[in-house]
Amino acid sequence: MNYISELRAALGDANVLTDPAELYVYGADWSPMTSSEIRPPDVVVQPKTTRGVQRTVKIAHAHEIPVVAGGGLTGMLGGALALFGGIFIDTTAMNSIIEVDPKNQTVRVQAGATLQEVNDAVNPYGLWLPHQPESKWVSTVGAAIACDNDSTFGVRYGKILNCLLSAEIVTGTGEVLELGHRKAHFTSSGYKLKDLLAGSEGTLGVVTEATLKLEPIPETRFVEMLVFRRMGSAVDYLSRLLKAGVCIEAAHINCKRRLKFYTHAYTAKHGREPEIPTWAEALLAVAFAGDKKISSMQRDYAIDIASEFEAEVVKEREIVESWWASKYTLDFEPFKQKWPDSQKTKKFGAADPGVPVGRLEEFYHKFIEVAEKHNLDIIGMNAYLEHPNSIGFSLSCAVFVDYRNADEVRRFRMFHDELSKLAVEFDGTMSTFMSDTHQKAPYLELEHGNSLKYMKEIKRLFDPKGIMNPGKKFVREEG
Ligand SMILES: Cc1cc2nc3c(=O)[nH]c(=O)nc-3n(C[C@H](O)[C@H](O)[C@H](O)COP(=O)(O)OP(=O)(O)OC[C@H]3O[C@@H](n4cnc5c(N)ncnc54)[C@H](O)[C@@H]3O)c2cc1C
């Protein structure tokens, strides 16, 4: 019996896809890639339980077949591509909400639930999961953990590890492990193996369930936008707010070019782009949330001190609302606004480095220089603040890429690699929300030096035969 027959026997015929037309859609994600690079897996399985995942991985382990897990396939750097064929585990049928525990403010879910599905289940209890990337409608919990993505509200609630209490995984041998500290918020016991999962890209195992910490839904939210002469002034301004004790719920510094990307609704309505002072280099979108009185006091303080930083508040509310709708509420058909028709010919391509607080502006200018050098159509930079109550950036340095033009795709990759390496020279990191995938794998040692050896050993412990998402994070070793 070959391995596909074994999968059929283990999971049932209906949950095993081999028709090439069905496999084709699993051959690409949202990363800029040419049609010749589409890599359908050999087989797709759609398990509904951890047991189904375990059976799949045990079969793969016995036959040494690659296994790639995926969710919404909206990754932007090819993380879920089955580079070496094999089995694709489509986790989207594993979307049950297992337990909502309002008293302890936790939820236990299957890993294929989208972040939006989690919120739909917990909102009736007055709770929410504040880990909210823009793609929350399709991004699954498992993928949010596996690629360690960004959240709109990172400056208050942090990234996925700040709300991940515990996770169940199926390792590369098919063993089921629970990693974490159940419903306790933290632990000093043992090694923090759960933390290894953030950004692991499915290379250690398939995440099957997760227990997540919830927060009370804030009563009110005020969103403001300010323009600054220089990007560095926006950073200084945020430092001042934090120093004053202001609790910021969301903060995103955009270069002026990037604004256009978020205000498509405004432009569509008015037939022109929003007007921003010509002297402004950067915009800061900032939110304050909680009790109405306290949040409005904080907002008023933020507005009062703006002039000290030569900043101006954007008065035209439609600009602010258009930006916020694009970023968070998405009260339009998802993927039809700022991922408009242009996505049919050009895709959003980004590098996702992290740089020290004081070097943001300097790095921004490097980004423009590198993008221009590679003759790319610049979308602009967004610095997401992702560290709770402090200034820690995750950068999206974005360009449009015509994916039908192989040379442009090649130039995009050179741009991506150059910026990633530059971030290390800047005393920063190559990746803050897309992880490494196969794109950064060849030069990971630049950032990690000798510790790469230990990372490979950890991988071997979880996945001795190297079958879990091979080629991602580490260049695949032959033999
Ligand atoms: C319109 C749009 C907006 C976006 N906005 C944001 C944003 O605001 N912030 C941000 O950071 N990113 C954003 N992204 C990128 C992307 O949506 C996110 O990174 C998201 O987390 C990917 O989720 P997914 O379910 O589509 O993952 P996939 O593309 O299916 O997978 C991503 C990675 O996770 C692994 N994986 C998936 N499920 C599992 C599992 N159960 N166990 C182990 N590994 C697994 C895959 O192998 C792959 O390596 C956006 C993308 C689009 C298209």
How would you sum up this structure in a few lines?
The protein is α+β, with helices and mostly antiparallel strands. It is built from 18 helices and 18 strands.
Summarize the structure in words.
The structure is a single chain. The chain has 18 helices and 18 strands. The protein has 479 residues and is an alpha+beta fold. Among the domains are: 95-216, Uridine Diphospho-n-acetylenolpyruvylglucosamine Reductase, domain 3 (2-Layer Sandwich); 220-329, Alpha-Beta Plaits (2-Layer Sandwich), CATH 3.30.70.3450; 345-438, 3-Layer(aba) Sandwich (Vanillyl-alcohol Oxidase, Chain A, domain 3). Strands 15-12-14-13-17-18-16 form a seven-stranded antiparallel β-sheet, sandwiched between helices. The site of flavin-adenine dinucleotide has 36 residues, from strand 3, helix 5 and strand 10.
What does the secondary structure layout of this molecule look like, with pairings?
Layout: H1 3-11, E1 16-17, H2 20-24, E2 43-45, H3 50-63, E3 67-70, E4 87-90, E5 97-101, E6 106-110, H4 115-122, E7 127-128, H5 141-147, H6 154-157, H7 160-163, E8 164-171, E9 176-180, H8 193-196, E10 205-213, E11 215-216, E12 220-228, H9 231-243, E13 250-255, H10 256-262, H11 264-270, E14 282-290, H12 292-304, E15 312-313, H13 317-329, E16 346-351, H14 360-373, E17 377-385, E18 393-402, H15 406-425, H16 437-440, H17 444-448, H18 451-462
Parallel strand pairs: 2-4, 3-4
Antiparallel strand pairs: 1-2, 5-6, 6-10, 7-11, 8-9, 8-10, 12-14, 12-15, 13-14, 13-17, 16-18, 17-18
Helix pairs in contact: 1-3, 14-15
